[in-house]
Write a structure and sequence with these properties.
The chain is of the alpha+beta class. Helix content is 17%, strand content 37%. It contains 3 helices and 18 strands. A hairpin with an 8-residue loop joins strand 2 (49-56) and strand 3 (65-72).
């Protein structure tokens, strides 16, 4: 090898480390862009209740939002409807039910009366409206979602809320109107666990639905059924479990909340599970 060729090879060897560093950086950037979302990290709160925070991306280039997610085994945990004629926030609903967490509930009229069926611990607290909404129920430890116009009370009904629109039925997303707002939803996953979610920021319903329908292994909740609850300024969330606290504050107070707590033995004493019923009548 002549002197000139050696100089050229020497120059190539001198530049190669810089080229490898650049190649490695480009690879890292590409890998980071294409990396799969992190799995949903649930924290066991006891009593069949789990909590996680998810990141929901926006499909329209907007910022997206964090979402507080509760997942509960309906055989070990229960949902309590709290109706407060004087209005409350999520922390108030949680305390009233002696619960671990609470979110806001269904729509209400200008006089703050709930608009839709409400059932808590087998007692009816609100009337069914046969409109284009859905009714989410827990009966015999099993969650379900029905169309409000075709609603039939299941046997052993213990919990029901009517709201809308329906977002996901048997894993299939339904068409929804576009619009950005804070969101509160209720539903269930393919394993029959109940899901409650509230967004910190504004989201399109389609983006939230798509994200929650993804498996937990890729950052979703594995949702099978989803029903939209009252959102926007009504969206609120409060959780207190030992040292773990999570809160979404709202500038308004609302008349209906949904609290989550571990099931209690028959005859045990605790916080008020519900406000006095609007009508002491059958669940139909």
């Amino acid at each position: 090898m002549g002197p000139a060729l050696r100089r050229r090879h020497a120059g190539f060897r001198w530049r190669r480390p810089g080229w490898l560093a650049l190649h490695g950086l480009l690879c890292q950037l590409g890998c980071a862009r294409d990396a799969a979302p992190a799995p949903a990290a649930f924290v066991d709160l006891g009593g069949g209740i789990e909590y996680a925070t998810l990141r929901v991306a926006a499909s329209d280039g907007a910022e997206g939002s964090d979402v507080h997610l509760l997942r509960l085994d309906p055989a070990r945990a229960e949902l309590i409807v709290v109706v407060d004629d004087h209005l409350s926030d999520a922390a108030g609903f949680r305390r009233a039910a002696g619960a671990v967490a609470a979110i806001n509930g269904i729509y209400f009229d200008p006089q703050f009366k709930p608009l839709g069926l409400l059932v808590s611990q087998g007692r009816r607290l609100g009337k069914l409206r046969r409109v284009d909404h859905g009714v989410f129920t827990v009966a015999g430890g099993k969650p379900a979602l029905q169309h409000a116009r075709a609603y039939t009370p299941p046997e052993a009904l213990e919990f029901a809320v009517e709201c809308g629109p329906r977002l996901l039925t048997a894993g299939a997303p339904l068409p929804v109107k576009a619009g950005l707002a804070r969101r509160t939803v209720i539903g269930s996953d393919r394993a029959g666990r109940v899901l409650l979610a509230a967004s910190v920021g504004v989201l399109q319903l389609r983006d939230l639905t798509q994200s929650l329908a993804q498996p937990p292994s890729v950052g979703g909740a594995g949702a099978f059924h989803l029903l939209n609850l009252d959102g926007g300024s009504s969206t609120m969330f409060d959780l207190q479990a030992g040292r773990l606290r999570a809160t979404i504050r709202s500038p308004v107070r609302v008349p209906v909340g949904i609290a989550v707590r571990a099931r209690r033995a028959v005859g045990s004493q605790g916080g008020a599970g519900t406000a006095p019923s609007l009508e002491d009548s059958p669940t139909r």
